[in-house]
Amino acid sequence: xxxxxxxxxxxxxxxxxxxxxxxxxxxxxxxxxxxxxxxxxxxxxxxxxxxxxxxxxxxxxxxxxxxxxxxxxxxxxxxxxxxxxxxxxxxxxxxxxxxxxxxxxxxxxxxxxxxxxxxxxxxxxxx
Length: 127
What we know:
By secondary structure, the protein is mainly β.
């Protein structure tokens, strides 16, 4: 029997999402990706999505502690990825994308080499 491990207590287990979006911890502010994109767009029209980690509170950018990559999805469909090096590049990316349909919101994931995987989402309407 013994103690059962609860994945919610381990930031390196699974995907981290804000527990209370209106009261973010400093750890969440440093790691939550911020998505800037239009609220709506026309079907198959090219538009820009800007994703940044550390916008709410600066994330370290050192060789020993940094954001490794940013991934962008529309629902569960992979859209793109940007990779970074500690101490040399800052964790933000501009994706130029086009959507024929939206099967869910835009979702951004960032991977911190010390604090795991973090995700946020933003709704988008396809006209």
